[in-house]
User: What shape does this take?
Amino acid sequence: MENKTNWKKYIFSFVITAIIFATAIILSNYFANKKLDEIRNIQDKIAIDILSSETQFSLLEESSCKDVGVGTLSTELGGLEDKLSYTESQRGHNDPEVLTLKRYYSLLEIKDYLLMNKISDKCKKTPLSIIYFYSTDDTCNDCEKEGYVLTNLRETYPELRVYSFDYNIDLSAVKTLISINKVKDTLPAIVIKDKTYYGFQSIEDLEKAMPELAKIKAAEATTTIQK
Assistant: This one.
């Protein structure tokens, strides 16, 4: 009789354990699928934004100088970069889909860079831009910190266009850009007006390297006083 009671206890404990284990698996799969759906939604949004930006390129090439605003595409690229960074943080640097999105975004940046130079020549203006090379591996200790600085600088000066590229990305267009500017693998590296700066650069360092930013700040201060 006692053995029969013990067997019932064992069976009951087994059933309870199995239910708990199955519930944990179901909940784990549910949240994993939910997170995957969120990432896919972000990827779909990036694809739509890229198509929208490419359409803008075609329109801008036909525009007159007075129709081209200082932040025509810089805000679009900044938004895309934020979405890409989130997806990369969720899935990792080496995820195949993340790498594909990063290649596509890099090409979009280069296209924007060439377009802005073309428009600047057409409108007789000096392009205000920074080309930033970074690495996602452990060899670049200051890359993340430099990224925050450039984000802050871009928010402070909407006229400034910041183009960020993974130095090690397997993309011939980026490799050509590196070769043209003769950028070494000492990262972070920032190219401003054909001059390359290596190592961490503060906001003050970058403002000093771009005197045009001081003029923008002075003009904004004058406008504020007049108001």
User: Anything to note?
Assistant: The helical segments are 2-61, 74-91, 96-123, 143-156, 172-180, 203-209, 211-226. The chain has a mean pLDDT of 78.
